[in-house]
Amino acid sequence: MLSRVANNLFWMDRYMERSYGLLNLIKTNYNSTLDSGDYSSWNNIQKTYMGIYESKPNDEYLDTISIINTMLFDSENPNTMSNIVIRARENARSVQEHISRELWLSVNKYYLHISNENLSINFRNSDPIEFVNEMLQFNHIYYSVADITQERGNAYCFMNLGKYLERVVQSIEFLSLRIINLNDKDQKLSESFFWKNLLISIGGYQLYVKTYKS
């Protein structure tokens, strides 16, 4: 396999995993801020994931909607979900002969959906959780199609390498958001909610419950 092909397969899955992690992060932090009423956590998220270092006093619900809209659709920021999906599709297009037709169609369908000019307007007029869940369905379809239709060969291995490396990086970044400011002498109830939200963000909460709470 050519190194160029391996690189594109690696980044295709890495970008898809990144979009999945970003959506889960948005969903989890949105629920967390509703529970706590503290919207300041969005500043750290924008700094870590969007490269936005200008902190703003996010004091109300509408600030959250504006931030999420930016994280999803800002075409000028390379780290937004829309741009991540675009790059995943570009990598998939260049290696169509190495992936299943169904896998290519699932990526392309995601791209066409996220490219809809009215999607940002639809987000502002809908429930954020329902909207994010709809976006997550595209990732679920992608993973299912990859698992069922992709031949178990070199291409599949490079795809998995990208996916799991991105998952490790995301887990580290999720943890860093909290550990930097963690005070062992001041363990509050809100911190237990953080760890629950952290596990939900990286898809590990159900496994934790089954392993340690059974």
Short précis:
With 214 residues, the protein is mainly α.
Features:
single chain, 10 helices, about 75% helix, mainly alpha, about 210 residues, about 0% strand
Task: Tell me what you see in this structure.
The chain is an all-alpha fold and 214 residues long. The protein contains 10 helices and no strands. The protein has helices at 3-36, 41-50, 61-73, 81-94, 101-114, 119-124, 128-149, 154-179, 189-201, 205-212. Helix 1 runs antiparallel to helix 9 (189-201). The model has no long low-confidence stretch (mean pLDDT 86).
Low-confidence stretches: none
Reported for the largest beta sheet, the result is:
none
Return the average pLDDT rounded to an integer. Answer: 86
Category by helix and strand content? mainly alpha
The arrangement of helices and strands along the chain is: HHHHHHHHHH
SSE blueprint:
Layout: H1 3-36, H2 41-50, H3 61-73, H4 81-94, H5 101-114, H6 119-124, H7 128-149, H8 154-179, H9 189-201, H10 205-212
Helix pairs in contact: 1-4, 1-7, 1-8, 1-9, 4-5, 5-7
